[in-house]
Amino acid sequence: MNNLFIAISSISLYLISTVLFMLRYRQVEVIRHFHISVIVLPGVLGLLAHIWLLESEMLSPIGINLGFFNALSLITACITLFTLVATLRHPTELLCIIMMPIAAAAITLDISITSSHVLAPGSSNALIVHVLTSLIAYSVLGLAALHAIMLSIQNSNLHSHQPYGILKLLPPLKTMESLLFEAISVGFILLSISLITGLLFLDNMFAQHLVHKTVLSIIAWLVFAILLGGRYFIGWRGKQAIRWTLGGFISLMLAYFGSKFVLEVILASH
Predict the structure, then answer these.
(1) Is residue 23 part of a domain?
(2) Dihedral through CA 61, CA 64, CA 65, CA 70, nearest 10?
(3) What are all long-range contacts of 24-30, with beta carbons under 8 Å and residues at least 24 apart?
(4) Phi, psi at 172, each rounded to 5°
(5) Res 159: pLDDT
(6) Which of 137, 153, 216, 249 sits CB 3.0–4.6 Å from 191 for a disulfide?
(7) What's the Cα-to-Cα distance from 114 to each of 31, 66, 108, 219, rounded to whole Å?
């Protein structure tokens, strides 16, 4: 099937689900009695189409293409998956309203702009584990960063006694903090596996073109390690948790997407 058709289908389904979530928030009579699974369904179908598109775009006889825009699309698909699952467990519809249009935008960039970084067939198992755990760790910690932003807005509204507005689509502050640290804990474990496999089994982790990526990833790991230690031993929460989460995520994004954007988009165009 034509990739453009799959892409348009995925984008359309994501946007339909986003609109349904918005109408649910607006208490539109026809929509507000729908079960949450009905609202989520177009998003799930959009995600399945997104995965189908990624399979077609990334897998080829010459290897796995993990170019900048393919990787960006893959990570947004993973975050969307985690967000949809979270929405079935907790009232986190606002995260879907934010995340699905971002995933739709990532698909648009992926099919519009070519980028290439091929992982050749026959690559070592350690390299495959390193790449997969890295991508999933970025996705989970990206979701944590999104939670942190929402938590920051919730905190501001709570202290200024302003109406919550659309933030009523989020669970209570305590639940949001629990979800934040659940995501950070899982992401930290995956990031640890990624760094360990990279340092033990890959010879070029500190090569000239990768040293900044490795150093920034280690800095991000240290930030999240300190944050989790502060949470479980000192009881960090609120603004401290938000700042450390966003700091670690920014370091991680610079490590991965910063280097990929320079190498595969800016330098490749010259």
Answers:
(1) no
(2) 130
(3) 24/93, 25/93, 25/97, 25/166, 25/168, 25/169
(4) -60, 160
(5) 66
(6) 137
(7) 39, 11, 11, 31
Q: What pLDDT, on a 0 to 100 scale, did the predictor assign at position 61?
A: 73
Q: Is residue 81 part of a domain?
A: no
70, part of any domain: no
- Domain assignment of residue 112, yes or no: no
Distance between CA 78 and CA 142 in Å, rounded?
A: 10
What is the pTM (predicted TM-score) of this model? 0.82
Which one-letter amino acid corresponds to residue 221?
A: W
For the chain, which ranges sit under pLDDT 50?
A: none
Q: How far apart are the first and last CA of the chain?
A: 33
Domain count, the chain: 1
Range of the domain at 146: 123-266
* Tokens 């910063």 -> residue: 258
